[in-house]
Amino acid sequence: MDDAKRPSRRKHDTELKRQVLAECAEPGASVARVALLHGLNANLVHKWRRHAAGAARPAAAQRSEVFVPVDLTPSAAAAVVAVADIRIELRRGALAVNVAWPLGASAECAGWLREILR
User: Fold this and answer.
1) In terms of domains, do 89 and 56 share one?
2) 55 and 92: one domain?
3) Is residue 31 part of a domain?
4) Parallel, antiparallel or unpaired: strands 85-92 and 95-102
5) Angle formed by the axes of helices 42-56 and 14-25, to 10°?
6) pLDDT, position 70
7) FRET pair for 14, CA 20 to 30 Å: which of 35, 56, 59, 67?
8) pLDDT tens digits for the chain (118 residues)?
9) How many Cβ atoms are within 10 Å of 36's Cβ, its own excluded?
10) Pairwise CA distance, residues 34 & 23, whole Å
11) Is residue 47 part of a domain?
12) Domain that holds residue 46
């Protein structure tokens, strides 16, 4: 291997970063276009934007996980559904039959209805 010197990373001053970020913040600005105008890689500019956005948020805003107590009392609507019946009205000629079937036995109701309608 030869002792060829590796190119070192370029260091950009704070003023250039501010200028590039300000141009990117303009309405309709393209990050890739701004990066090309300044001879920069667009990924680097995106990285600067992420760092700037993270630094702009206060520490409390970065943590949004908060436990909130929730009251899990059954509602009145749930209680009504629990006591509801399946109501079926059959009419054949002058004969009318009304049937109230417990909701908990809906499978049996379906079987009965299938048999009665044969």
Assistant:
1) no
2) no
3) yes
4) antiparallel
5) 90
6) 84
7) 59
8) 556 777 777 888 899 999 999 999 999 999 999 999 999 999 999 999 999 888 766 665 556 678 888 888 776 666 665 567 889 898 888 989 899 988 888 899 999 888 888 8
9) 13
10) 7
11) yes
12) 14-60
Predicted local confidence at residue 46, as pLDDT: 93
HEC per residue, the chain? CCCCCCCCCCCCCHHHHHHHHHHHHCCCCCHHHHHHHCCCCHHHHHHHHHHHHHHHCCHHHHCCCCCCCCCCCCCHHHHHHHHCEEEEEEEECCEEEEEEEEHHHHHHHHHHHHHHCC
Residue 57 Cα distances to 16, 21, 22, 36, 53, angstroms: 22, 16, 17, 28, 7
Residue 98 belongs to a domain: yes
